[in-house]
Design brief:
It is a single chain. By secondary structure, this protein is mainly alpha-helical. The protein has a single domain, classed as MazG-like (Helix Hairpins). Helices cover 65% and strands 0% of the residues. The chain contains 4 helices and no strands. It has helices spanning 7-17, 24-44, 58-75, 80-95. Helix 1 crosses helix 3 (58-75) and helix 2 (24-44) runs antiparallel to helix 3 (58-75). It starts with 6 loop residues before the first helix and ends in a 7-residue tail after the last helix.
Length: 102
Amino acid sequence: MKEHMTIKALQAYIKQKDFRPEHRQAYFFKLVEEVGELSEVIRKDLRMNESQNIKGTIEEELYDVLYYTIALANLYDIDLEQCHYFKDELSLKKYGSISTQG
């Protein structure tokens, strides 16, 4: 079984692999593109099958969206784990519980 990865570790991995500050706009455009691809596979309900083939699935596109979100966070030197705690605290104050309402 593979080890569990933290957000911080994934952020560090992506930063080491793919960090080009001069391409900020391109990373954003890739994120938008991946959200569109995610929309399409969700509409078609394309899931990873038993053979673990991830190509063209919701799983693949969700990871791609996560990848470019993290890549952008790295370009702006944003710690996403810290953001989680800040946003969680804000939601608790605003809604009294963790909320998906923005």
